[in-house]
Design goal:
Number of helices: 14
Structural class: mainly alpha
Radius of gyration: 23 Å
Number of strands: 0
Distance between the termini: 51 Å
Oligomer: single chain
Length: about 260
């Protein structure tokens, strides 16, 4: 596309080069891939569709735990934090109070604040659009944005993932809530593992980058597993972030004497 915007190349020596003529493209002058969506957008849409269907599991689980259909849908529309929503539904299903469930959900959703700190400088969203962007901060949109080579691609990937995932998640939540009790256990379809599997696929290139990254991942997993029986939902995830601090200290070059 950049070459098409530089017609001077075609006439410097008095005639069109074969490359310029090919780029001009016969009758239409358009590239075969001219109508294709940019890769970050395509990846974001596909990721949102794949992960969003797990909203079926949340919708069914929330209604089975005692929430109404409209309460379940309101959580997906306004909270839009899948893991926190599952934590809330799980606490209520286990006999816990709504206050306890909300506290655990807020604690688990606190990781999105850390994501926002990293994304703020990358996306450079201004004005009222920052409120919309804040709602769109999830594991998936963050990972896809950070995987891009520049700001424009990061913004495209972030908002494509947000739009696709938000719409699919909410539609699936409604379907799961209405169909609760009729489709059986959502876990029997394996929908509950789609999100973690997709997130692992997104961060895999970073895990393959070096031993420090793999050490941080292993340390975080060990901390979360060890803390899960002892702490309320959400706390082990936050505590596991301390592994990143250890990795930062370990990878910092020693200061010269």
């Amino acid at each position: 596309m950049t070459e098409l915007a530089q017609p001077a190349d075609a006439g410097e020596s008095g005639g069109s080069s074969p490359r310029a003529s090919a780029a001009a493209g016969g009758s239409g002058g358009s590239s075969p891939r001219a109508g294709a969506a940019p890769k970050p957008v395509r990846d974001g849409v596909l990721l949102g569709l794949a992960v969003g269907v797990s909203g079926l599991a949340f919708g069914a689980a929330a209604v089975s735990a005692g929430l109404t259909v409209w309460q379940t849908c309101a959580l997906s529309l306004l909270a839009y934090t899948g893991a926190s929503q599952f934590a809330l539904a799980g606490t209520i299903a286990a006999g816990g109070s709504l206050v306890a469930g909300a506290a655990g959900a807020i604690l688990l959703g606190g990781r999105n604040s850390l994501y926002s700190l990293r994304l703020s400088g990358l996306l450079q969203v201004r004005g009222a659009a920052r409120l919309l962007a804040a709602l769109g901060v999830t594991d998936e949109s963050t990972a896809l944005a950070l995987a891009q080579p520049d700001r424009a691609a990061a913004r495209a990937g972030f908002f494509a993932t947000f739009a696709s995932l938000y719409l699919t998640w909410n539609a699936a939540t409604l379907a799961g809530a209405i169909g609760a009790g009729k489709i059986g256990s959502p876990q029997s379809f394996g929908l509950d593992v789609i999100g973690p599997a997709a997130f692992l696929a997104l961060i895999w290139p970073r895990l393959a980058a070096g031993w420090t990254e793999r050490g941080v991942a292993a340390g975080g997993a060990a901390i979360a597993i060890a803390a899960t029986p002892l702490l309320p939902p959400g706390a082990p995830i936050i505590l596991a972030a301390s592994a990143a601090l250890a990795g930062t200290l370990a990878s910092r070059p020693a200061s010269a004497p």
